[in-house]
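FORM 7B: Structural annotation worksheet

SECTION A. Query
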Amino acid sequence: MTKVEFLRRQKGLSQTQLGFAIGINPNLISQIERGWRRPYPKLLQALATYFGVSVEEIANPDGSLKEMDSKTA
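SECTION B. Predicted structure
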């Protein structure tokens, strides 16, 4: 599970609700959470701002989303 998926579920949001909240196609949320696509920098910033965290908390230096280890999820 990615950090973004963890934060989304913690807020009780569906992928569709999150997509609409930050102004992107909800299908993109699914693709990003599954690792099929990397979020572009502006989207990473929008996600971080929405969840009240830093970009570094949700993304690796290469732009891929951070995965939660089983102990913290």
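SECTION C. Observations
The CA atoms of residues 39 and 60 lie 11 Å apart. The chain has one domain: 3-58.

SECTION D. Sign-off
Analyst initials: ____
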